[in-house]
Amino acid sequence: MRILSRFISVITLGLLAMAVWYANEIRSAREQTPALVAAAFERHGTELTPEALSPARKAMLLAIEDPTFLTHHGVDLATPGAGMTTITQGLAKLLYFPQGFQPGLAKIRQTLIAQYALDALTSKDEQLKLFLNISYLGNEDGRAIHGFANAAHTYFGKAFHALTDEEFIALVGMLISPNSLKPGTPASNERVQRISAYLNGKIQPASLLDEEYTGKQQGSVAEEALMMFLRLVTEAKPS
Fold it and tell me: Which of 69, 86, 192, 235 is the most buried (most CB within 10 A)?
């Protein structure tokens, strides 16, 4: 019993220490948010605004990337096909991880910042404006491509507003793997076909992680455990 009591005490202290650390990370992120958003616009520009998307294109974008973007609080761990990264979480990765984002425990920090800092302090329109202008969309000749306007010129040689629906879908479809889904490649063409079938109601995602619309029912043991933990920490507000 004494050993069990000690074990429980150690676990409790560990959880308390973790809660304090993440609460501090959230407070720090909230303080940095206005400056980080301003710096991102200064670096990548503001060529595109949400108004650059027609209602139909906006619906397509959100259906593919983040179906509940307009109503969630930075995180969505329930909608089939949404994956574990909302638009807000994707922005958090770009804004708050200057040394690069490494999968694993960083996902917890990214998720908490997305919900309690970025989404809490930044309007949905401002987030969408950020998304359109700073999203990473692969590289060309060693140059990183950020923003949909730059990607339209780079991959299709035309202005963003001149893209066809298929070209627009190809750019959106890149986001899941920007360096391996460049427009015109077989992998990109296949993804565009699957996304088009999804948008037309011909196929439906089977689970949260079914981002490829292939019928994936669940993730790995590690993914499922991480999702369970993320649901836990995003349901309770930090002090």
Answer: 86
The DSSP bridge pattern shows strands 136-140 and 143-146 to be: antiparallel
95 in a domain, yes or no? Answer: yes
Contacts of 86 by beta carbon, 8 Å cutoff, 6+ apart:
66, 68, 69, 72, 74, 75, 76, 114
**Cβ neighbours for 91, distance < 8 A, ≥ 6 positions apart:** 114, 118, 127, 130, 131, 134
Residues 84, 209 contacting (CB under 8 angstroms): yes
Question: Tens digit of pLDDT for each residue in 201-225?
Answer: 999 999 999 999 999 998 899 889 9
Q: Domains in the chain: how many in total?
A: 1
Instruction: Report pTM.
Output: 0.89
For residue 172, which of 140, 143, 208, 198 has the smallest C-alpha distance? Answer: 198
Q: For 55-87, what is each residue's pLDDT tens digit?
A: 999 999 999 999 999 999 999 999 999 999 999
Kindly state whether residue 118 falls inside one of the protein's structural domains. yes
CATH code where residue 161 lies: 1.10.3810.10
Closest CA to 233 of 102, 114, 104, 120: 114
Is residue 16 domain-resident?
A: no
**Domain presence at residue 4:** no
Instruction: Compute the distance between CA of residue 139 and CA of residue 144 in angstroms, rounded to an integer.
Output: 4
- Domain span at residue 215 reads 25-235
Q: Which two tokens stand for residue 239?
A: 């002090």
- DSSP-assigned letters across all residues of 198-233: HHTTS----STT-TT-S------HHHHHHHHHHHHH
